[in-house]
Amino acid sequence: MKFNKIIYPIIASFLLVFTACESIVEEDHLSNTNTVEGVQLKAENTTQGGNEIKIEMLTPGITGHFNYIIGKALTDRATILFPVMGTFNFTYKGSLGAELFEKKVAVTIDKLDHPVPPEWGALLGTDAVAGKTWIFDQNGTPDNLWWFMSAPNNPAGSMGAWWNAGGTCCPPSDANGKMHFDLNGDANYVHYENTSATGTKGTFILNPEGKTLTINDSKMLGYAAGNKDGVYTIVSLTANKMVLYLNNNETNGTGWTFVFRPE
User: Fold this and answer.
1) Strand order of the sheet with strand 41-45?
2) Rounded-to-integer distance, Cα 40 and Cα 33, Å
3) pLDDT tens digit string along 111-125?
4) Beta bridge partners of 174
5) For 54, phi and psi rounded to 5 degrees?
6) Which domain of life is it from (predicted)?
7) 6: enclosing H helix or E strand
8) Secondary structure of the chain: what % helix, strand, coil (to 5)?
């Protein structure tokens, strides 16, 4: 009985303390620290109209990143070289605290006063926002090389045809299709199976230094001999001709070469 007389008050005390603590617990709620209108972004040329651009997110307490169309800046401030001329909208994607937001800032580039790889201008043309359309470089003759099997793992031998599939036998289903590249808000890519088809939209990554062109969420023209990863080696890329190569295409286990010209 003495034990019960002691233990019961102790239990009652614990219950009282627990109940009192529970009554003052409050849930934490996220709240915005600013508004979209209050977020200040800045994009300016480091020289008058030049292609070196300094981008900044000036508002404290905001987290996120810049998407400057051909890449991302994961810090609030970055200096980039943009490879083409025109007016472009860079996007800041971030959080106000309780909600996500996007906000754009425009920049105009009138001259390429800092060196950039010429492949960008070759791929996109003189107006990168409008972009450029490419088709197979075929002329209707059997000896024309525009989509053909080639040696595996040998970009230097990419123009040596093992089997001229496009010219002599079995052209791809999209032989008369086209593909379009532009920088209208993003690195946009569209594949058209033929002249009347609805386009399949995706994005592209041009890596002149690494000599690769990658297609995401769509198909390269001539995809019947392509790879699922969408990564192609650039053999050559000029304003009038683009030659791409696969070291080991999934369909045949050989190399494969694709030759394009502007529409």
Assistant:
1) 41-45, 52-57, 77-81
2) 13
3) 999 999 999 999 999
4) none
5) -100, 120
6) Bacteria
7) helix 2-24
8) 15, 35, 50
| Tokens, residue 203 | 């994005």
Domain 119-262 has CATH 2.40.128: yes
Tokens of 178: 């086209």
Q: Would you say 124 and 181 are in contact if contact means Cβ atoms under 8 Å apart?
A: yes
- Beta partners for 237? 242
- Of 82, 80, 106, which Cα lies nearest the Cα of 92? 106
Query: Domain ranges in the chain?
Result: 36-109, 119-262
Q: Is the pTM of this model over 0.90?
A: no
Q: Band of the pLDDT at 34, cuts 50, 70, 90?
A: confident
Question: Residue written as tokens 């093992």?
Answer: 162
Query: Residue 97 and residue 99: Cα distance in Å, rounded?
Result: 6
Tokens 């569209």 -> residue: 190
Q: Are 242 and 260 in contact (CB under 8 A)?
A: yes
Quick one: 36-109 is in which CATH superfamily?
Immunoglobulins (2.60.40.10)
Q: Would you say 224 and 252 are in contact if contact means Cβ atoms under 8 Å apart? A: no
d(CA 88, CA 107): 6
Work out the number of other CB atoms within 10 angstroms of the CB of residue 202. 19
Say how far apart CA 97 and CA 190 lie, in whole Å. Answer: 36
Same fold, 36-109 and 119-262: no
pLDDT digits (tens, 9 = 90+) for 205-260: 999 999 999 999 999 999 999 989 999 999 999 999 999 999 998 888 999 999 99
Give the sign of the dihedral formed by CA 216, CA 222, CA 225, CA 231: negative
